[in-house]
Amino acid sequence: MKVLVTGGMGYIGSHTCLALLEAGHEPVIFDNLSNSSALVLEQIAKISGVKPAFIEGDIRNTDKLYQVLTGYQCDAVIHFAALKAVGESTEHPLRYYDNNVAGSLSLLRAMDRAAVRRIVFSSSATVYGDPDYIPIDEAHPVRATNPYGWSKVMVEQQLSDLCGSDPRWQATSLRYFNPIGAHESGELGDNPLGVPNNLMPYIAQVAVGRRAKLEIFGADYPTVDGTGVRDYIHVMDLAAGHVKALDNDNHQSGFFACNLGTGTGYSVLQMVAAFTAVSGVQIPCEIKSRRPGDISSSFADPGLARRILNWQSQRDLTSMAADIWRWQTNYPAGI
Ligand code: NAD
Ligand code: WQD
Fold first, then answer.
1. Which EC class is the enzyme in (predicted)?
2. 3 state SS of 196
3. Whose CA is nearest to atom 4 of ligand 1?
4. Ligand 2 close to Cβ of residue 294 (< 6 A)
């Protein structure tokens, strides 16, 4: 299939483009480069031998999206383009609602006009808020705790209502837990602009000397060692989940949401230990107070994805840490 990949120059989108190419699909990347570098295209070409079509543009430009969808004769869309920083969304909610919600609405309008009605959407476990129970399954209540999370809930509602109004639509919402890792080649990885918000890129930057130490946000949670527990999933396992969703014959019409996680939770200290085990580098740490908005524990029940998408994660914590380390040592300053 020809697949429009919005946000395809970003972390998860670029890795998914590699998985799409490997599966025989043809990605067409649409990205405004607000949080990524055009050099990512060279890395995709270096790894895969194919340089996908790339159109620089904003998903809020409905006409441009329509021209790309029809011009490239796209069959489906994988929609990654969004702003994703929880803290920033609390400070600038309208920026997040405009970019993520209005942007998605613009995309859906362009798709309907172009008669392209198959979409895979990047959602997040953030839609569950502070969980009532773990592991978290898709029956868990959806109730975000920040504008970013609400923007994901709102787009899922758009998709659900659209599919309910017109059976020609097929939408799959993939609720990612904590994506980490990098392509095994070491030529592509998480390349955050500025100071990383997330744990693993921060640890990796400490390991190569770009940061002095890791601040651990809270060691008084009711967990195995007091630090926060999350479900870390390899970005290439996540990418494979998108290809499965795209090719899914079990779900030809309507809206469907499922978790993409490993089903296993690890604490911050366990992640630090895993990284040291593969890198040989001791990570200086300082225990600080809890980060506002953080939850204690979160990990997925991935059973629905296994049943409906015939997908489950394959890569373990050691390979996640080893792939991050390879990427970070290849490109200490990112690309
Ligand atoms: P990223 O920032 O690396 O990639 C997002 C890409 O979208 C960037 O290349 C950016 O330039 C582009 N973009 C943003 N707004 C755009 C717009 N208006 N028009 C065109 N392009 C635009 O982020 P990522 O980590 O790859 O995340 C991809 C998706 O997965 C996002 O929707 C995010 O909310 C979701 N997600 C990410 C995580 C995570 O921890 N990384 C977890 C759950 C869900
Ligand atoms: C993981 C753990 C921190 C950094 C976020 C977003 C979520 C999704 C994934 C988009 C927590 C601890 C972290 C640091 C630390 N993104 N930590 N020191 O918060 O689970 O999820 O990214 O959808 O929406 O909320 O991931 O990597 O920020 O934190 O101690 O410098 O590491 O407290 O326990 P999080 P994270």
1. isomerase
2. coil
3. 10
4. yes
Query: Looking at the chain, which runs of residues are DSSP E strands?
Result: 2-6, 26-31, 53-56, 76-79, 118-124, 170-176, 178-180, 214-217, 229-230, 232-234, 254-260, 266-267, 285-288
Q: Which two tokens stand for residue 116?
A: 């392209």
Please tell me the pTM assigned to this model. 0.97
Fold of 2-181+233-262+300-313: Rossmann fold (3.40.50)
**Do residues 131 and 151 make contact, with C-beta atoms less than 8 angstroms apart?**
no
Domain boundaries, the chain: 2-181+233-262+300-313
What is the H or E stretch that residue 150 is in? helix 147-165
Residue 270 predicted with pLDDT over 90: yes
Distance 102 CA to ligand 2 centre (A): 26
First-to-last CA distance in the chain? 29
Residue 148 falls in the annotated catalytic set: yes
With H, G, I as helix, E, B as strand and everything else as coil, classify residue 65. Answer: helix
Question: Which pLDDT belongs to residue 127?
Answer: 97
Q: Which string of b and e fits 43-57 if b means at least 16 CB within 10 Å?
A: bbeebbeeebbbbeb
pLDDT in tens, 110-168: 999 999 999 999 999 999 999 999 999 999 999 999 999 999 999 999 999 999 999 99
Instruction: Tell me the ipTM for this assembly.
Output: 0.98
- What is the Cα 192 distance to its own chain's centre? 13
* Residue 313: closest CA among 234, 258, 251, 252: 234
Given this model, what pLDDT does residue 193 score? 79
Catalytic position from the list 66, 148, 176, 221:
148
